[in-house]
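Researcher: We're reviewing a set of sequences before deciding which ones to prioritize for further study. For each one, I'd like a predicted 3D structure that I can look through quickly. This is N-sulfoglucosamine sulfohydrolase. If possible, include the structure in token form so it fits the rest of the review sheet.
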Amino acid sequence: MPSLWSACCALLLSLGLCRARPRSALLILADDGGFEIGAYNNSAIVTPHLDALARRSLVFRNAFTSVSSCSPSRASLLTGLPQHQNGMYGLHQDLHHFSSFDKVRSLPLLLRQAGVRTGIIGKKHVGPEAVFPFDFAYTEENGSVLQVGRNITRMKLLVRKFLQTQDEGRPFFLYVAFHDPHRCGHSQPQYGAFCEKFGNGESGMGRIPDWTPQTYDPQDVLVPYFVPDTPAARADLAAQYTTIGRMDQGGRVLGAQQPLPRGWRRDLGLGLCRDPAAPGLGPLCAPEAGCRLGTCSQPQELAWGSPGEAYAELGGGGGQFPLWP
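Model: Here's the predicted structure for N-sulfoglucosamine sulfohydrolase, in token form for your review sheet.
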């Protein structure tokens, strides 16, 4: 299946399924992320942990997706097929109820057949289960998406649980899908437009122990040229920056796991992607605001921190994807 292989080759190479010593992979997905990190020259936001990852990665600046929508882009990422081939034409849950075709062979399905243990923590938003099976799953399908996708302390503990139950010597693929920085005013308005108040310690908001909230003055944000520069847009961006900061700090706590499988630092590939539907932009997103993709492997340390100008497309759906061993 050449189209599926072309989409998943980077991850499969990371796993090293054809080598005597298999590697594991951790894929971290942002929900509606964009250029709002320091690594993409945004000087108004503080994202030290994402920037540190980028400095140890080759960050591609010319990778694109065929669809700017949540479930279709996630299905493309996990199948290597654009939405008209995988069947996920629209959003999966609620009234939309779109699903991939029953005979699609997804990445978690193929990895399971190859003996790789698979796990997902956070927002799944694809189906059916038979097409996207994970051995270890904590998602909106069996819990609160706020807890598994925004509560970085809860996510840390779930990652630890996955690693502690991992058989030594068996490769794994762990997919951690943040719900940050997606809007939430339509579903949980009490937490703010982007759930920027969720877990901030204020009355009624709860507290996420591993998060130190960062707030931003709307006057200080960088408004993309394709977004009207209005007070409402600036207020949205300021709230979004706060939730991106929570995800950034989540990257720090996810990387501080103990105990870990023996040799994990040598044998683990780490990727960061975004579901390519920037908030407030949807399908009107400018081409250069589409997804970016970057890869790096251990023998290529001289490329760390440099931008990749090669044009790439990840099976119709992708995102910024630094791969870090």
